[in-house]
Amino acid sequence: LIVDKIDKDEDGFVNQEELKDWIQFTQKRYIVDDVERQWKTHNPENKEKITWDEYKKMVYGFMDGQYRDMDQNELDKDEEGFSYQNMLRRDRRRWDVADTDGDSALTHEEFSGFLHPEETGHMRDIVVLETMEDIDKDKDGKISLPEYIGDMYRGSDGEDEPEWVKNEREQFSTYRDKDGDGFMDQEEVKNWIIPPDFDHALAESRHLIYESDSDADQKLTKEEILNKYDLFVGSQATDFGEALARHDEF
């Protein structure tokens, strides 16, 4: 059923362009759905804007004075950089960047930028900043190789490192750390997580065709896709798992 949906020109094949279009469609749909759902949750009366105070009360209300159901130690507790106080500060900072007219309230469009900053031009620097804060454990404003690896892999003593971790070490020194000083600075982190001119949908469609195209004709039959169904269902990009559950798709 899904393959028929992707095959726009109904020629019995899924080509790269059709697959790329489907991936872009599912990504967009996920974001629209997510924003809509959260907008309704935080703004049940569907007012034009959500104020910071309304959002804070709904998400962090449990931290406030008389309603508080956690003691101060719990709120300040910092395990692996996680604390509610820290989350609140980060949310407020992100809110202020999303709030383009500076009135401390977000329109539907601004709220979308707040929830999905990676999709919104002027919000991308905050994604870089948050990533830096998460990985930079010694807070020196840059990311070392141990911090970079430690974010993805925590091996136990004496355990052999998996091959992919060795590959990531090479990635760090060859591609991530462009000036070769042993660290990733803010600009290098930006190039890593938001590479300029990188088309995620195009890259994923190429990868899926490369992995599934058994006769190497650069297009996929329904049979070729079904033979690799686990690859497609497992791909976040195609969102097949979600599409199967959505009856409105059909």
Characterization of this structure:
Keywords: Calcium. It holds the Pfam family EF-hand_7. It comes from Timema podura. InterPro entries: EF-hand-dom_pair, EF_Hand_1_Ca_BS, EF_hand_dom. With 250 residues, this protein is mainly alpha-helical. Helix content is 56%, strand content 6%. The protein is built from 14 helices and six strands. The strands form three sheets. It has a two-stranded antiparallel ribbon. The protein has a two-stranded antiparallel sheet with strand order 2-3. A two-stranded antiparallel sheet has the order 4-5. The longest helix has 27 residues, at 16-42. The protein is globular and about 60 Å long. The relative contact order is 0.13. The model has no long low-confidence stretch (mean pLDDT 89).
Primary descriptors:
EF-hand domain-containing protein, EF_Hand_1_Ca_BS, two-stranded antiparallel ribbon, calcium, EF_hand_dom, 250 residues, EF-hand-dom_pair, 6 strands, mainly alpha, globular, 14 helices
Topology:
Elements: H1 2-6, E1 13-15, H2 16-42, E2 50-51, H3 52-60, H4 72-76, H5 84-98, E3 105-106, H6 108-115, H7 124-135, E4 143-144, H8 145-150, H9 163-176, E5 183-184, H10 186-193, H11 200-212, E6 219-221, H12 222-227, H13 229-234, H14 240-245
